[in-house]
Amino acid sequence: MIITLKNYIFALLLFLAAAGLAAAQTGVKGRVRANNGNPIPNATVTARQQGKDVKSVKTDSKGRFQLDGLAPGVYSFVFDANGFGSGLLQGIEVKSGSVRDLGERLILFPDRGLQVIVNGSVFYKEGTSLGGARVDIEELYSDGSAKKLTTVYTNISGEFTYKRPQGQARLRITARFKNTEASKIIDVDTAAIYRLALTLDISRTEK
């Protein structure tokens, strides 16, 4: 089979076009809402990687957005709007040629001062919400010591909230229920909403 220069160039252009299309379609989409469920128009959603802002987009009149043109990798997403505290989603993987749907997890609360807000969810191993779980929150220090800050319990939807003044800290969040537990460590700093999920190795049907 003889490949002419013209055919080679044509094939190369097709390849580059396909690669460009895949890059353009690599990103995330979702909807930013207030805690009362109303959409937030003109909110800013920023992709951040290794501490640097990569790309931003504004939400439309219904709070929806799509942020394309991201390189494959793991990102944090910061979302801001006037009159609301900042929100943060961490550890979101973006894959080549696909747009990941973040759904309606981007919820902002009215700004009540410079606070760190930790919003967490606890689940059974099947993925259903676990209400009534005990959640212990500790601050970890560089010398290896830990200080217990508070204990809260998840509500009927398996959710809990912890608030503190802004400032750098490393927190260990431990959920406990019926002799099972799971922990995560998060680093907080500036005033924002930090989200995490904990899954316990227990079934909803276990007594």
Notable traits:
single chain, 207 residues, mainly beta, Immunoglobulin-like, 4-stranded mixed beta sheet, 15 strands, 50% strand
Q: Which CATH-level-2 architecture of the largest domain?
A: Sandwich
CATH class term of the largest domain: Mainly Beta
Helix content: under 10%
The N- to C-terminal Cα distance equals 70 Å
Low-pLDDT runs: 10-23
Biggest pleated-sheet summary: 7 strands, mixed
User: For the CA atoms, what is the radius of gyration?
Assistant: 21 Å
Q: Strand arrangement, largest sheet?
A: 3-2-5-6-15-9-12
Topology, number of strands: 15
Number of domains: 2
The helix-strand sequence is HEEEEEEEEEEEEEEE
Multimerization status: single chain
Principal-axis shape equals globular
In CATH terms, the superfamily of the largest domain is Immunoglobulins
Q: How large is the count of helical segments?
A: 1
Overall pLDDT: 85
